[in-house]
């Protein structure tokens, strides 16, 4: 099998990444334009402040102009009122766009996660995927929104201040521009280090999330086996990696600022010296030029510092788009099938996983008649679960084909195929929702309470559900943590009963249950199996004695087929497995009786 590619096939340029990010801002361009205009207006007020210094000093303090004395305070107040309103509009609108962008990206990423094929999840740590949705996406927004606003705001401020300085004295202004090439060089050198360290931070955050998730999910094992120190050590190690990468990032960012300021200060010192040599410069002009020059350092500092969040955002964008660009589950089928009769045929099926030395399945051929119950048995790794995963197309065979009622599964639309299949496995998946919502899950959410009740009755689940505090409205907790193993299994069976699919896959549905729970679950399964084509995977052979046929797998091949009695009579693999389990069971019973 070919697994999905986890990284982009080619390096993506910063320009391509940025333009793609801006496409997500486009739906909110009207609000974004308001933010930009507000930022530009703030920048213009910055340029206006040194402009009023000339008439303020020359007109008020030197010439003692009565009109200037009367109007200048009002002009200053008005200037800052306009600046405050513009600042508020820019900040609010930018926060609105940023939050919408985060929501849109997370929604698309989550939708993509739901579409990705099963092999992708086999190759990915869940903590890394969670980190993409929780951490990486928030880093992207600054690059797409606030960085752009800062560039507009500070860019306009720099242009405005320089324009005023040119008008005052073009020679001194040209002298100030000598620092520009040096600043560009510094920014370019720092950019590469910032991007690399940002990638390292995002990767390390995924590993931190993974450690946290494993510790939470396995908290009982951690406590029972004294793993607190080990898990604390793992967590400290990963968080220290994050700290080190963040410090590299901070060092790179901090390096650029003092160098830029030093260049600017050197230019400022030179300009002050030359200004004092020019007798044509008035006090107001000198103060105005000096004010503009000093105010120029702030936007220069911000516009050089903007490189840090920009590179961090672009590195995060690579991570986010790598997920969004993953190909979804292949759904090439064009046919729909109504309720199937349930005839399943495996024709020369082989499957080899990437990197595996031996095939998981090797030339499997099997026909299962409508309504027939077929059990798959064999040692671990024999290929039982692989066969079951091929039926709903969680995996695709390397060669051969599988048909349902004569229709090649590859030619059926996945939604149509899976509507005809129900699954009950040993690893029951329940959601942190009510009992009723877990039974009537997904496409069945609109069914009535009476149907849910009937499914629960048939699954022998109503007995314990009615004893719960709120009955069917009781929240079961994360993955049904408030329920026993047998109760979770019966809810899964009720879910399958409610779906009423003609094809049923039972994957170790009664394993790891106590005798009382197994009795209830077996009774529920008997009701579920009736009239359905059933594929049963079991290690405990006592649970499949009544199957219509038993298929024995060994190293991906079918080695025996027959009923329970026929296979015992053969005295081969099945018979030996059964005798071993029977002996173990007898020893356990004797030990329990002696105790």
Task: Give a structural overview.
It is a single chain. The protein has 595 residues and is of the alpha/beta class. Helices cover 63% and strands 9% of the residues. The chain has 20 helices and ten strands. It has a six-stranded mixed beta sheet with strand order 6-7-8-3-9-10, sandwiched between helices. A four-stranded antiparallel beta sheet has the order 2-1-4-5, covered by helices on one side. Helix 2 packs parallel to helix 5 (126-168), helix 15 crosses helix 17 (485-499) and helix 19 crosses helix 20 (573-594). The longest helix is centred in the N-terminal third of the chain and has 50 residues, at 66-115. It is elongated and about 115 Å long. The model is unreliable at 1-9 (pLDDT under 50).
Strand order of the largest sheet: 6-7-8-3-9-10
- What are the low-pLDDT stretches, counting only 5+ consecutive residues below 50? 1-9
Radius of gyration: 35 Å
Number of strands: 10
Order of helices and strands: HHHHHHHHHHHEEEHEEHEHHHHEHEEEHH
Arithmetic mean of pLDDT: 81
Quaternary structure classification: single chain
Biggest pleated sheet: 6 strands, mixed
**Main structural class:** alpha/beta
Strand percent estimate: 5-15%
Shape: elongated
Query: How many helices?
Result: 20
| Termini gap | 51 Å
Relative helix content: 55-70%
């Amino acid at each position: 099998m070919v697994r999905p590619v986890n990284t982009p096939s080619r390096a993506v340029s910063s320009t391509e990444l940025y333009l793609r990010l801006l496409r997500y801002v486009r739906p909110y361009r009207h609000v974004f334009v308001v933010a930009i205009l507000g930022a530009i207006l703030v920048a213009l007020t910055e340029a206006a402040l040194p402009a009023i210094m000339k008439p303020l000093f020359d007109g008020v303090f030197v010439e003692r102009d009565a009109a200037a004395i009367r109007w200048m305070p009002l002009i200053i107040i008005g200037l800052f009122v306009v600046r405050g309103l513009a600042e508020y509009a820019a900040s609010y609108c930018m926060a609105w766009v940023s939050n919408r962008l985060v929501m849109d990206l997370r929604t698309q990423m989550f939708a993509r996660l739901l579409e990705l094929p099963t092999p992708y999840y086999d190759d990915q740590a869940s903590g890394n995927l969670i980190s993409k949705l929780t951490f990486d996406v928030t880093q992207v927004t600054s690059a797409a929104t606030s960085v752009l606003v800062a560039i507009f705001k500070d860019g306009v401020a720099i242009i405005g201040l320089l324009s005023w300085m040119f008008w005052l004295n073009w020679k001194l202004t040209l002298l100030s521009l000598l620092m520009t090439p040096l600043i560009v060089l510094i920014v370019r050198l720092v950019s590469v280090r910032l991007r690399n360290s940002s990638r390292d931070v995002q990767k390390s955050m995924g590993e931190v999330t993974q450690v946290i998730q494993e510790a939470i999910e396995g908290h009982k094992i951690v406590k029972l086996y004294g793993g607190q120190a080990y898990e604390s050590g793992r967590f400290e190690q990963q968080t220290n990696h994050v700290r080190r990468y963040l410090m590299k990032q901070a060092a790179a960012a901090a390096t650029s600022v003092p160098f830029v300021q030093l260049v600017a200060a050197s230019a400022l010192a030179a300009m002050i010296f030359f200004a004092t040599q020019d007798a044509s410069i008035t006090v107001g002009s000198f103060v105005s030029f000096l004010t503009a020059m000093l105010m120029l350092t702030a936007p220069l500092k911000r516009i050089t510092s903007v490189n840090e969040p920009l590179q961090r955002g672009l590195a995060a964008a690579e991570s986010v788009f790598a997920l969004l660009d993953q190909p979804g589950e292949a759904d090439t089928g064009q046919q729909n099938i109504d309720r199937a009769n349930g005839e399943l045929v495996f024709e020369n099926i082989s499957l080899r996983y990437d990197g595996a030395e031996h095939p998981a399945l090797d030339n499997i051929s099997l026909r299962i008649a409508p309504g027939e119950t077929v059990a798959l048995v064999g040692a671990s790794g024999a290929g039982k679960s692989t066969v079951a995963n091929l039926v709903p197309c969680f995996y695709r065979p390397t060669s051969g084909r599988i048909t349902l009622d004569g229709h090649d599964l590859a030619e059926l639309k996945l939604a149509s195929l899976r509507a005809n299949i129900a699954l009950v496995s040993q690893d029951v998946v329940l959601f942190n929702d009510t009992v009723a919502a877990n039974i009537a899950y997904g496409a069945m959410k609109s069914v009535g309470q009476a149907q849910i009740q009937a499914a629960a009755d048939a699954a022998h689940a109503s007995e314990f559900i009615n004893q719960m505090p709120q009955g069917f409205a009781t929240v079961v907790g994360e993955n049904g943590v408030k329920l026993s193993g047998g109760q979770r299994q019966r809810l899964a069976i009720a879910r399958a009963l409610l779906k009423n699919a003609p094809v049923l896959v039972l994957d170790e549905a009664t394993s790891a249950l106590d005798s009382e729970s197994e009795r209830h679950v077996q009774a529920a399964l008997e009701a579920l199996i009736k009239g359905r084509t059933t594929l049963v995977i079991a290690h405990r052979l006592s649970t499949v004695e009544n199957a219509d046929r038993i298929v024995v797998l060994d190293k991906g091949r079918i080695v025996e087929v027959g009923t329970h009695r026929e296979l015992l009579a053969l005295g081969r693999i099945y018979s030996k497995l059964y005798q071993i389990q029977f002996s173990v069971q007898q020893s356990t019973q004797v030990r329990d009786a002696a105790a």
